[in-house]
Design brief:
- This protein is an alpha+beta fold.
- It has nine helices and ten strands.
- The protein has a single domain, classed as Ribonuclease H-like superfamily/Ribonuclease H (Nucleotidyltransferase, domain 5, 2-Layer Sandwich).
- Strands 4-3-2-1-8-9-10 form a seven-stranded mixed sheet, sandwiched between helices. Strands 5-6-7 form a three-stranded antiparallel sheet.
- A hairpin with a 2-residue loop joins β5 and β6.
- This is exodeoxyribonuclease III.
- Keywords: Exonuclease, Hydrolase, Magnesium, Metal-binding, Nuclease.
- It comes from Albula glossodonta (roundjaw bonefish).
- Belongs to the exonuclease superfamily. TREX family.
């Protein structure tokens, strides 16, 4: 199973509105959860389905579960606790309320619109989160609505590597960084817990506007041109 995290900032805090050395305030966090691929093995994101889509903006939270179209592997179930039975999703053996992928993404777009053009940041966004998200949006023809709702993206993995370049830190996984900077552990395979941890981590880092601007990118330039034709699947 793979996970991806996003940090969201309101438009008033976007780096093009701040001084190069000014702190980047009011971070929020967004997380996408998908399955059937092990990120550390560099597996193909084209076979990855979204199972849980969660977001947190301060105290405001968004959370949706989706029954995956692909067969969930035993490894994915072991790591995440998710299983599929009789076309329903279970978490540690208990039924979870689900919606279609279209409903989840549409509700997610509405949530983002309420944040007034947020900047989304994810740990490993360029390599994983954006391709998975872009494929799902394109398959459902929702990419235009999504692009209109956000200001861009930030990869906190790449940000952390530059931010901590002159320290002794050599491991940049989110779990390790949370342990190092926040002195705690968290339930990494629970999407909401994961995004709360990323939000708190981002607040501790407080990167300045110049650093954020340097690692900011847009979905169309990076991903949409690379999205392969959608495979026909039961998405509705």
């Amino acid at each position: 199973p793979c996970k991806a995290g996003w940090v969201v900032a309101a438009s008033s805090a976007l780096p093009n509105k701040g001084r190069a050395g000014a702190p980047f305030p009011h971070p929020h966090t967004l997380h996408i959860w998908s399955h059937d691929i092990i990120q550390r093995n560099n597996a193909d994101v084209d076979v990855c389905d979204i199972v849980q889509l969660s977001a947190i903006s301060g105290e405001r939270a968004f959370n949706a579960h989706v029954v995956p179209c692909c067969t969930m592997t035993e490894e994915a179930s072991r790591v995440t606790g998710f299983t599929v039975q009789d076309q329903g999703l279970l978490l540690h053996g208990r039924p979870v309320e689900t919606v279609s992928l279209r409903q989840a993404l549409t509700a997610f777009i509405h949530f983002l619109r309420s944040l007034n053009q947020p900047l989304l940041a994810a740990h490993n966004a360029k390599r994983f989160d954006c391709p998975v998200l872009a494929r799902a949006l394109c398959e459902l023809s929702l990419q235009v609505q999504f692009q209109q709702a956000v200001a861009g993206f930030l990869d906190t993995y790449l940000l952390s590597k530059e931010l901590l370049a002159h320290t002794t830190v050599r491991k940049f996984s989110q779990q390790h960084l949370v342990s190092l900077f926040l002195n705690k552990t968290y339930e990494a395979h629970n999407a909401l817990e994961d995004v709360r941890a990323l939000q708190e981590l981002f607040q501790v880092w407080a990167p300045d506007a110049g650093m954020v601007r340097k690692h900011r990118f847009t979905l169309p330039l990076l991903v949409l041109a690379q999205v392969r034709p959608a495979v026909s699947r039961a998405l509705f």
